[in-house]
Amino acid sequence: MEALQEGLGLIPVTAQILVCRGIDSVCAAQSFLDPSLDELHSPFSFVQMEPAVERLLAAIERGERIVVHGDYDVDGITGTVVLLLALRAIGADIDYLVPHRVDDGYGLKPRGVNRAHKKGAKVLIAVDCGTTDCVAAARARELGIDLIIVDHHEPGDEIPQATAILNPRLPDAGYPEHDMAAVGVAFKLARGVLERHPRGLRGTTLLKLVALGTVADMVPLTGENRVIAYHGLQTMGETVNPGLRALMDFSGVRGRITSTDIGFRIAPRINAVGRIGHPKDAVEMFLADDPGEARRLAELLHKTNAKRKKIQDEVIEEALKQKPRDTASVVVVAGEWNRGVIGIVAARLVQEWGKPAVVIAIDETGAVGSARSIPGFDIVGALRKVSNLLEEFGGHPQAAGVTIRSENVEPLREALALTGGKELELAMQQSAEIICDAELDFETSLSYLARELERLGPFGIGNPQPRLLCRDLRVESQRVIKDQHLKLRVACGEQSVDAIAWRRSKLAEDLTEGVRFDAVAELTINRWRGRSDPQLELIEVNVDGPVTIA
């Protein structure tokens, strides 16, 4: 720890956090704090990158039509745009299509292949889908379309036949990074093609979009993902892309962009059109050259997101009424709800109940569900155990989608309630533990400390925001915001700082003026209307004594 302090000029708290996260040498810490683009792996580490690149270069040379089939979330949308921009830059005849969540459903379907065929596709690139879509792959072969799959979802028992499959989760993929977003894999394909093309472009300007999709898809921000997110966020505020610029304006994001800005401001507006609108509006926004058109589409995303929030809040209120029994392992709730918001609702139920949750929307066409898990528990593995009740399912260990017959919803509820075992028990135990990275030293300027801790970002899975034990805070003032959040001004030693407790307005009854308390908190920088002030985001509060931590 002393070596990091002396070698890099870090204060003790920051050095301690790095060491606890396994970064215990000056060289490793320097690489972590200032990752280099040279750390990006070669695209050709993928075993099947060579045939993918060769086929695309041949298509460009012959003037053959390439069609990109994306997905309706941020990852799929940005992956689609990355390939469109990269291949258009070297003269490709390229078009795209993205599915509608309700009309088309998730994944590459034969219907989607037919649409690509009507567009004149000779090569079809499936982005953020395709790994389990064997029927659609067969349809592509029937139509004489060469299929390239660019994905990151868990493979099934059968692997589709394709010209190339680029998926780091395949056992024989050859790629050193396992947990990538689909946009990251799309970026690798783009880089591979650009590298072999005579123009020799590097494609690093695409990193802003790659970072956006990577952070939004909540993959671990370690290794190569960290390099991508770090460099993309560093320059995102300076983007010349009219669509991204307009979207940031409507999101209220300016200056330095953080992973929090993406997760809570930018990404929800993109996802909104994929949930209750059409994702093509987001694709067209990013592709727009005209600032006026880009702004019109960004405003559409903004208004759609406001509508999404209203629908989401109504569904959450209804879903919370279906509180599970205490013995249930995985929770299932169902109702006649909008399919576009069930993923958000599932994530909220996980927060409320501390258990994996499946939210199912039922309508006249059938039933579809979205599942979210807690860290350490593989929800896809749980669904695999009850697959006899499902029509389709797939996803990641932390998030999945299902299609199910309406009459099987109740049997699924009962079956998943008994699923979990020791794996879930251990995951729930770990998620309930409050782990602190360090104790807050009030002798250090909180403004200085907040800025130094910010250097450890981008934060996300695999590299969480540091949590600090704060002893003997004293309430100077308090107010409730929007009937949900509690905003405080607290004294800590000789300093005072703002503090916020999100969705915990009930704490106002205990945290009255003059009350002293201990807390676990994240020290962040609140940027608002040109100001940048330190702020404690309260995770756990105890007014009766010390906070119990692991």
CA-CA gap between termini: 22 Å
Residues in helices, as a percent range: 40-55%
Helix/strand/pairing category: alpha/beta
Instruction: Catalogue the unreliable spans.
Output: none
Beta-strand residue percentage: 15-25%
As a whole number of angstroms, the C-alpha radius of gyration is 24 Å
Main sheet summary = 5 strands, parallel
The chain-level mean pLDDT equals 93
Q: Please give the count of helices.
A: 19
Total E-strand runs: 16
> Which term fits the overall shape?
globular
Q: Strand order, biggest sheet?
A: 2-1-3-4-5
Report on this structure:
Helices cover 41% and strands 20% of the residues. It is built from 19 helices and 16 strands. It has helices at residues 2-8, 12-20, 26-33, 49-62, 74-88, 110-118, 134-142, 182-196, 207-216, 223-236, 242-251, 259-276, 280-287, 291-320, 342-353, 379-385, 409-417, 421-432, 446-454; strands at 65-69, 93-97, 121-127, 146-150, 164-166, 331-335, 357-363, 366-372, 392-395, 399-404, 438-439, 468-481, 485-492, 495-501, 516-528, 531-542. The strands form three sheets. It has a five-stranded parallel beta sheet, sandwiched between helices. The two termini are 22 Å apart. The mean pLDDT is 93.
Give structural attributes.
550 residues; alpha/beta; five-stranded mixed beta sheet
